[in-house]
Design a protein that fits this description.
about 400 residues; ten-stranded mixed β-sheet
Length: about 400
């Protein structure tokens, strides 16, 4: 049947069908890889500032500065949950940074590396992260690129922080590093410092912190774990989900997911429609052959199988080519970063790629099943072809 295709109109249509399937699966692989990579990058940036769950003392005010909570007591309760992977203490305090020419209000977030390195290290673009000392509080701070640009600060620059409290306090810090997430919710607000600085400013003992950030083994179990914490932890402990704190960002990511799924359904529809058209044309061009086969005793199912396996061959060829093209593009972008992005608009400096073998396998299986179902539709025409009429068909 392949040899008969050569030089015929069917041969051209077969090529178009193969190319449409190849392009469809390649576009789907690249689209899902970019979408997952983009989502992972954004989520990791958000998680670096707040983990999955945030626990603090219940407070009716909306202030960033909340009443302290006992870290050892709450930690002992959290380590009982197997889904918890890390627990990081933190505290926040509003401040005003004053330089020679500029004044800027910020939130100083105190962090600690006593229980593991901070996930904020992944966002560093210059300098070093805070160098924590064993005894005294570190004077190092990490500021965002936006804050650095506004205040004309660079790595090694001193910075005066004014804390509005009774009595007012002033601290001189040193910029040890600069971070950049591309998310204005963080870059325009937060400066990172040693947790012990805030404990000293608030006259807290080492056991008191502003709250605990809890990271889970499986983000998909966030809601279930939140419900469990809400029911079992003491009533004075406030539990917040990261998806509620930054709802606008997660809603935006969810909207992207919906748009891509609609786009992919349209691609599969076009590829399968081309397959239907191809098999229709193959049957019409071989009507005389079908009549002869029926005249010598071939059944409808036997003839239908011929066209079905021909459609399967076209589909598999298209899938192989499409996977090579799609995975090849992903590899080029992943290792060589051939397509850059403007961080001001896209929150990252390059098109991200995430490798998800399960999703890629599902895409191939879905395309294969859709194409084969499409192949079956036109083959039912074979039962309506009469041998005597078909043999005279020209």
């Amino acid at each position: 049947m392949d040899g008969a295709d050569s030089g015929s109109f069917t041969h051209s249509v077969t090529r178009i069908a193969t190319v449409s399937i190849a392009l469809g699966i390649a576009v789907m692989i690249v689209s899902f890889s970019i979408l997952h990579g983009f989502r992972e990058q954004i989520q990791n940036k958000i998680f670096s500032f707040g983990a999955h769950l945030q626990l603090s003392r219940y407070d009716t005010s909306n202030s960033l500065e909340v009443a302290p909570i006992s870290e050892p007591e709450l930690r002992r309760q959290l380590v009982r949950y197997p889904q918890v992977t890390s627990i990081q203490p933190f505290a926040r305090k509003t401040a005003i940074i004053k330089t020679t020419d500029e004044v800027l209000g910020v939130v100083l977030k105190g962090v600690s590396e006593k229980h593991g390195p901070s996930s904020m290290r992944q966002n560093m673009v210059a300098g070093k992260f805070i160098q924590f000392a064993d005894s005294a509080a570190s004077d190092d701070i990490v500021i965002s690129q936006k804050v650095a640009d506004k205040l004309r600060l660079k790595v090694g620059s001193p910075a005066l922080f004014y804390f509005i409290q009774q009595p007012p306090r002033v601290r001189k810090f040193r910029v040890s590093g600069i971070y950049q997430t591309g998310l204005d919710e963080f870059d325009e607000v937060y400066v990172l410092g040693d947790l012990r600085q805030i404990q000293e400013l608030n006259a807290w003992p080492d056991s008191l912190v502003g709250g605990l950030e809890v990271r889970l083994r499986d983000f998909s179990r966030l809601n279930a774990t939140f419900d469990q914490f809400y029911e079992q932890l003491p009533y004075e402990v406030r539990v917040e989900k990261i998806t509620d704190q930054y709802a606008q960002l997660f809603d935006w990511l969810q909207l992207l997911n919906r748009n891509v799924i609609i786009f992919l359904i349209l691609i599969i529809f076009v590829a399968t429609f081309n397959m239907v058209a191809t098999i229709f044309i193959m049957i019409l061009e071989r009507t005389k052959m079908i009549g002869i086969l029926k005249a010598v005793g071939a059944t409808d199912n036997q003839i239908r199988e011929m066209f079905f396996f021909r459609g399967l061959s076209i589909t598999l060829k298209g899938l192989v080519i499409g996977n090579v093209v799609g995975l090849g593009f992903n590899a080029l972008q992943f290792y060589f970063r051939i397509i850059p992005l403007d961080p001001e608009n896209y929150y990252m400096d390059r098109v991200p790629i995430a490798w998800d073998a399960q999703v890629m396998l599902l895409l191939n299986v879905a395309t294969l099943l859709a194409a084969l179902l499409a192949v079956l539709i036109p083959t039912y025409m074979i039962a309506r072809i009469k041998p005597m009429v078909a043999i005279r068909f020209d």
